[in-house]
Specification:
This protein has about 280 residues and is of the alpha/beta class. The protein contains 9 helices and 18 strands. The radius of gyration is 18 Å and the shape is globular.
Length: about 280
């Protein structure tokens, strides 16, 4: 059992979960993930780690509440325990002095990008940070990125912060630089990663994405997380989760990500059991 230190909503539908996991905190590196279960009979959920404190023995996770399992996670409070917290899993982000690295993130990817940017900065890179969201109120941790970034660009669909538009505005950002970045790293939803990869492929800029397929065991045994990269089958949990975005079969990946959309929709339509409808810190059934 792992004790919950804190669970709070950082922006609507996005939660911070801090869990006591000293063995993981001592070993985890940027880009790696853990698998959690919110309850004994619950689903195993792969989640990227956004921060950790080796001295306190804790790990921090940013997750989006989208279905039954994450709804249960969103009801946790300080002092609760979870039956499973396994990790670190996957391969860490390759960190070196690449030169100028543009880090693009949105949604839960903003959280998982934070430790990557910290290590890139420490390695001597010039970091350009791009944060994307529907509106300004959905962008979080901006103050954490400011001291680590050479420049910060924000893209909001309603234009409430930074550039107005969608992922396609990344083209404008790159074209506005004195010289293109040496590498781009993208964390976030499938559309963000796929579309950014499409843009950068035409520009010839190496692009790394952090894939988030459905997983079960996280060790490569079940095969659920298989993806096609460079026309070869890979397992995201052991071969990734990071891959060359220009080589990912995005059409296949998106189809597999949608495998349980109907079941999640049905969950929210059921009258019993009811979904995790809650006020901050209080869940109701």
């Amino acid at each position: 059992m792992n004790r919950v230190i804190k669970r709070e909503m950082v922006v609507p539908n996005m939660h911070l979960l801090v869990v006591e996991a000293p063995e993981i905190a001592a070993k985890i590196r940027p880009g790696q993930f853990v698998i959690l279960r919110a309850e004994e009979e619950g689903e195993r959920i792969p989640l990227s780690v956004a921060d950790w404190d080796e001295e306190q023995g804790t790990i921090s996770i940013i997750f989006m509440e989208v279905g039954a399992s994450t709804g249960t996670l969103a009801c946790l409070k300080s002092g609760d325990t979870i039956p499973t917290c396994v990790g670190p899993l996957g391969n860490p982000t390759e960190i070196s002095n690449f030169g100028t690295v543009m880090c693009v993130s949105g949604c839960y990817g903003i959280g998982s990008m934070y430790p990557v940017i910290k290590e890139l900065k420490k390695a001597g890179n010039k970091v350009l940070t791009v944060l994307e969201a529907r509106s300004s109120y959905l962008i979080y941790w901006l103050n954490r990125f400011i001291p680590l970034s050479e420049r910060i660009f924000t893209i909001t669909r309603d234009g409430s912060l930074g550039m107005k538009g969608h992922v396609n505005r990344i083209t404008d950002i790159i074209n506005g630089l004195a010289s293109p970045p040496d590498m781009i790293i993208v964390n976030g939803c499938t559309f963000l990663m796929a579309h950014t990869s499409e843009i950068t492929k035409s520009l010839g800029i190496k692009t790394i994405v952090n894939l988030n397929p459905i997983m079960i065991d996280g060790t490569g045994m079940c095969g659920v997380c298989r993806v096609t990269v460079g026309n070869k089958m890979k397992f995201a949990c052991v071969d990734g989760p990071e891959f060359n975005g220009h080589e990912v079969d995005w059409k296949e990946f998106l189809a597999r990500r949608k495998a349980y959309v109907d079941e999640e929709t049905l969950y929210f339509r059921k009258s019993a059991p009811k979904p995790a409808v809650h006020k901050e810190g209080k869940c109701q059934s």
